[in-house]
Each structure stands twice: as structure tokens, then as C-alpha cells.
Amino acid sequence: MRYYEQKEEEVFQSLGSSQNGLAREEAARRRERFGPNRLADAKQKSLARRFFEQMANPMIIVLIVSAILSGIIGEMVDMTVILLVVVLNAILGVVQESKSEKAIQALQAMTTTRSKVRRSGTVQEVDSHSLVPGDVVLLEAGDAVPADMRLFRMSNLKIDESALTGESVPVEKSPKALSASGGKQVPLGDRLNMAYMGCNVVYGRGEGVVTATGMKTEMGKIAGTLAKTREEATPLQQKLNQLSNVLSIGVLAICAFVFVFDLLRSGNFSSASILNTFMLAVSLAVAAVPEGLAAVVTIVLSIGVTNLSKRNAIIRKLTAVETLGCTQVICTDKTGTLTQNRMTVTDFYGDAELLPRAMALGNDSELPPDGGEIVGEPTENAMV
Length: 384
What we know:
A hairpin with a 2-residue loop joins strand 1 (about 115-120) and strand 2. Strands 1, 2, 3, 4, 5, 6 and 7 form a seven-stranded antiparallel sheet that branches. The chain is built from 13 helices and seven strands. The chain has two domains: about 5-35 and about 130-220, Calcium-transporting ATPase, cytoplasmic transduction domain A (Distorted Sandwich), CATH 2.70.150; about 45-110 and about 230-325, Calcium-transporting ATPase, transmembrane domain. By secondary structure, it is an alpha+beta fold.
């Protein structure tokens, strides 16, 4: 529904709410209906699935086949060693990825936010995950917008929407209803009476009624689209797969050649001769397989994960470690990524006493008592 086209009264009527907010009982009922206000987490994989996923690559399959062939020809020691390498490699991969998952979950638990809402006419602070459509939320400088909402009251409210639009300049909001010509939708960045989950209030204050929560928000739609994308093999996986294919085809071709050549050379086509020649070819195939390659790759990638973790970078999958080193082109919005979305005053010209005083008195930025991030517009923040 295009809430930005509706007037304030129409919005409240559509959502079954009012400026006094929802009753506590109604908020609880809607929580049961709409679920928590959070983006859907990826389905957690079981330990067994993670273990077998470590084996789902051509190189490991080649090793398993090699172990089976070793058992067939009676080389039990070789079979045991190869299987041990395969199992240890899988365990190492599972342990490393499990540690990364736990670290990510711990970080998510630390970033729980709270929001000021008006329910039954009383302002209270609640967990942002408990918000429902129809809740009236109070916003002020420094707050993260907890859900998509239609703004209806404000005072010099400016919101940084760079997370959605890429525009680094804060947007000054207005409570007026909007309309687009020809029945078209108003572009996301031009919806001045809307605030969206994931954006930050940098100036002023305001009030809005929640129109969408969780995966129904604009941020949730983006997350849903990303979740549907097919996972592609990393450059390292592609190269290892190619190596496995070449190795498999090459070994089979050489073994077939040796098998046929030895039979033709000896001229003995008895059952015993054929069996002996076959065992020779199988032994050659087993000897040609690099049993330690998979383990070496896993160990090297684990070292890379450890080194990156010391630089506050958490790697969820081992194979992703090598990917950044192969990256040639990065297509990204530079604001807040390649640049910090900050400005800095390095020099000033003028009265050495008057100018700093004017910069301080004419500045609405706020410096938290705990020494955290300065809250306000980038230009004014640079003067603090």
C-alpha cells in the first residue's frame, strides 16, 4: 500500500491505530500475527550437513575413490591414511566455520536496539524486535529507524538514507502526503514522509506510525532478494575442481593405456594375467592422487581466517578467504565503504577567537557522554 500518498488520518485508519498508539493487548495480538520485527536469519545447518558439505567437492571425491581402490588391492594402510586425511580435513573445516558462526551470532546479540513507542497513550521503551504495524515510534537524533514508517509529526527531522539510496546527504523530511503523475510510484529517495528500516536520524526529532516490519520492509525485500541468489563457486574452488577433473581424466587415461599396453606386451590374456595387470593399473592410479593437497589447502585457509580475525574480519566460509585476493573490480557505492561519509576541518581563516565560538554556538551536533560517535550532520560534525 502507498502510505506516502495518504493523509495522516487515512494512514491511521488503514493501520487501525491512532496518534496515541496501539493498546498493549492489540500490540501483543499483532506480534503473534506479524511475527518479530527482524530480518529472517539463514536456516542453520546441522553438524552432519556441514560435515558432508566439506566432502562435496571433486578433490575429496577423488581421494575417497582412491581409498576404495586401495582397499580393493589390499593396501589397507594407504586406505586408512587417505580416509583419515579426508575425515580430519572435514572436521577442521566444520570447526572453523562453526567458530565463525558463533562469533557472528554473538555480534548480533550485542547489537539489539530499543525504540521509544507510544502505546495506550504512554511513551515507553521496548525492544525494536517487538514493534508491529500500527505502533507509533518516536525518533530523535542518533536513533536508527527500527521499521518502515509513515511520518506524521516532526521538527527539523533529517535522516541519512545512504544505506538504501546511496545518497550521502541527509534527507529533510516532511509530513505532507505525496502524489506521482500518471499513477506511478514515487521513487524511494523522494518519499519525504517515509522513514525506512536501517536508516539513521542525524538531526531533529519526529514521530511516525509503523507501516511494515521484518521482511516486509524495504530492507527486508532487499535481504529476501539476496537470499534467493545462487551461490557461485569461488575462484579457488573453480581451480581445484578443474585440477580434480584434469587429474581424474589423466589418471584414468594413463591407467587404461598401461593396462592395455602391458597385456599386449606380455601376450598373456589369462584371467590371472588380466587381474595382475588390473591391480598394477589401480596401484598406479592410487599413487598418482595427491592425498595431502586437500588438507594443505584447508590448513592454509584456516591460517588466513585466523589472521583476518585479528583484524576484526570474520570469515564464514573457508573458501571465501582466497576470493578477495582474486578480486580485480569492486562495484560499490563509495559512501561509508571506500570513504567514511565524514568531513574534517583542517584549517580555518579569520578571527582566531570569534570563528571557533561561532562554530560551537551555531552547531546542533551532539557528542555522547560515553565518547561514542558524534550525532548530527556531517558538516556540523566536522566543526566539533
